[in-house]
Design brief:
There is one protein chain. The protein contains 14 helices and 22 strands. The chain has about 475 residues and is α+β, with helices and mostly antiparallel strands. The protein starts with 6 loop residues before the first strand and ends with a strand.
Length: about 475
């Protein structure tokens, strides 16, 4: 077995470069991952931001311990003095299918990204906090070029992202940004400066807390000061499944990624495995877009940090003068479980994970964007690397399959012999005309190399 080289994989070159810079300056995996997440809050605001939530999985090489932190969104309303108004429905067309989302102040849940980044750094960081935030501040002052893949996502999500103050950012002068244009958020450098100076508390009990409450409540939301002051990052249990002799370590997510891997067929040879893999992946989930992104980092000591964050689609509510867009988690249909109540942590499909080889060493640090397709993207990439013997870039780049009910959605170039076996097994085949960000956005660093998903302009950089 080979060791994993230090590196960063992310869904934007600027995000990955920020993480790599921190590694080069002596930071560990946690420092680099936090720096990359915050850089993504500048350059990947179509997917994520300081107003979102997420999960972090950390592998400590010296002990083999794997820890997962939950800093996802919490249902507001614990103040009890403000009832939410109606949400605003917006239509988004994705793959030719109409999707209905709800945005507005009532869709905003308590954000967790600042607290989550702070807790990852507090537990495992090596460099000063301000040093880890600094690369993002520089990006916010200059703006970041929008990759073509992100521009295509913007086009699909424009009805929500262009709502309210978002129009000035994503459609300046009445022209929607296209690939190569500079994405710039006025005031975001100030927001990040406050984060560097006061720490994550600036958003919860500090200088920006009252502004956050006022922005949400004036837009019809219920979020209050008690919701913010009471927010806590939680440690969540990590389970495991075996795949080709490797141990997959991850949290239990809404899509049951760990259970799906455990339920894969015994015969993983191609093409015979196709019907069994499709059956394991079968879900009844709704096809939602999900604005999500992932960072995967490994440092020179073999520690790994994988962080997945999201805004949902984005609520259309912004912090005035600070360039921060707030999440729309309460408007995301597939996240609305029966047990939601004020103060309750919401569930998610996100599943940042690590893979341990038979010798007990790190083999892969990996995560994905893609809402209900996160599981599909992770399973297919892991099969590519651990079973099919592909390098990381090839495993991430190859055509994917995603199943919904009895329909197998496949990207162009998917193996015809497997499609024939799927059809014989009773699956309906929907062949997409081109590769699409619908099928997820994997970023991974491992023994097979480092790579990001071309569906979302991802890159992998080694130190």
């Amino acid at each position: 077995m080979t060791s994993v080289a230090a590196g960063v994989a992310a869904s934007h070159p600027a995000t990955a470069e920020a993480g790599l810079r921190i590694l080069a300056e002596g930071g560990g995996a946690a420092d680099a991952a936090v720096a990359a997440v915050l850089a993504g809050c500048v350059g990947e605001t179509i997917f994520t931001g300081l107003g979102g939530g997420g999960f972090a999985t950390y592998f400590e090489a010296a002990t083999g311990e794997v820890t997962c932190l939950d800093f996802f969104a919490t249902v507001p309303g614990t103040d009890g003095d403000h009832r939410p108004g109606p949400m605003i429905e917006v239509d988004v067309y994705f793959g030719g299918v109409r999707q209905v989302y709800s945005i507005g102040g009532a869709s905003v849940a308590v954000p967790g990204v600042p607290a989550g980044c702070g807790e990852v750094h507090r537990r495992w960081g090596r460099l000063p906090w301000a040093s880890v935030v600094e690369p993002a501040i520089g990006l916010a002052r200059r703006g970041v070029r929008l990759p073509d893949a992100h521009a295509r996502t913007l086009e699909a999500c424009a009805p929500a992202l262009n709502w309210g103050a978002g129009a000035e950012v994503y459609t300046p002068g009445g022209r929607q940004l296209t690939g190569g244009d500079v994405l710039f958020h006025p005031g975001l450098d100030e927001a990040l400066g406050g984060l560097a100076d006061e720490g994550p508390a600036v958003f919860y009990t500090g200088s920006y807390a009252a502004l956050l409450v006022e922005a949400v409540r004036s837009a019809g939301g219920a979020l209050g000061p008690r919701d913010l002051a009471g927010y806590r990052v939680m440690e969540t249990p990590v389970d495991h499944a075996l795949l080709a002799g490797y141990r997959i370590r991850a949290r239990h997510d809404l899509s049951r990624t760990v259970d799906t891997i455990a339920g894969l067929p015994a015969d993983l040879g191609r093409p015979a495995r196709a019907p069994g893999v499709a059956a394991a992946l079968r879900d009844q989930g709704v096809q939602k877009i999900g604005d999500t992104t992932n960072i995967s980092v490994v440092d020179a000591d073999g520690n790994a940090c994988v962080i997945t964050t999201t805004l949902g689609l984005g609520s259309g509510v912004w912090l005035p003068g600070l360039g921060v867009h707030l999440n729309s988690m309460l408007g995301e249909g597939e996240l609305l479980t029966d047990n939601l109540a004020p103060g309750r942590r919401m569930a998610s499909n996100m599943c940042p994970l690590v893979v341990i080889d038979p010798d007990g060493r790190l083999a892969v640090a990996i995560g994905s964007a893609g809402a209900s397709r996160i599981r599909t993207a992770l399973v297919d990439t892991l099969l590519g690397v651990l079973v099919d013997g592909l390098d990381m870039e090839s495993a991430i780049r190859r055509p994917r399959l995603h199943v919904v009910g009895d329909v197998a959605h496949v990207e162009p170039g998917y193996r015809r012999d497997e499609l024939a076996l799927l059809a014989d097994a009773g699956w309906q085949i929907n062949e997409w005309p081109e590769f699409d960000h619908y099928f997820g956005g994997v970023t991974a660093v491992g023994q097979a190399g480092a790579a990001g998903d071309p569906r979302r302009a991802g890159v992998g950089l080694l130190l």
